[in-house]
Amino acid sequence: MKKLWLILLIISHFSHAQDLKEKDKQYHFIAGTVSSMVGYAYIYHKTEDPLKATLAGLGTALLAGTLKETYDSTQKHPNDKFDIDDLKATMLGSLTFSITVNLEQLFKKRKKKNEKLNHLNPIVYNFKYAGTIL
C-alpha cells in the first residue's frame, strides 16, 4: 500500500499539477474523481468486472464534465463558454481515481498469486519465512 501512495504522489506531481492552480480547476478535478467513483462503484456492484467498472467511471466523468461545460456555454454571462481545460481537469481527476483503484487490485492479485505459489512449494516457503517462524 505504501508503494501505491508513492506512485500516486509521483503521478500527481508530474501530471500537469500546474494546470490546477485555479480554484475552478480544482473543483473540476474533485468532481471528476467523485463522478468516476460513482460510475465505477455502480457498475462494479452490478457486474463485478473491474474493466467494465473502470470504463464506466471514466465515461461517467467524461459525460458529467461535458454536460456541465455544455450548460456553461449556453449561459448569457460573457465568461461562460465551453472550457476544454475544465474538461481536462475533470478527466484528470477521473484518471487519478481509475489508476489508483486498478493499481490496488493489481497489487492484491499479485500478493494472492505469490502466497499461492509459496504454499505450493513448502521448501521455498519455509526457507523464506524461517526467520519469522523462530
Describe it.
The protein has helices at 2-14, 23-47, 50-73, 84-120, 122-128, 130-133. It has 134 residues and is an all-alpha fold. The chain has a domain at 21-109. The two termini are 27 Å apart. The model has no long low-confidence stretch (mean pLDDT 78).
Feature tags:
82% helix, 6 helices, single chain, elongated, 134 residues
Write the layout of secondary structure elements.
Elements: H1 2-14, H2 23-47, H3 50-73, H4 84-120, H5 122-128, H6 130-133
Helix pairs in contact: 1-4, 2-3, 2-4, 3-4
Strand fraction band?
A: under 5%
Count the DSSP helices.
6
Largest β sheet strand count, sense and barrel closure: none
How big is the Rg? 21 Å
End-to-end C-alpha gap:
27 Å
Low-confidence stretches: none
- Backbone structural class: mainly alpha
Count of DSSP strands: 0
Can you tell me the overall shape?
elongated
Q: Report the helical percentage.
A: over 70%
What average pLDDT do the residues reach? Answer: 78
- What is the chain-wise order of helices and strands? HHHHHH
Give a summary of the structure in a few sentences.
This protein is mainly alpha-helical and 134 residues long.
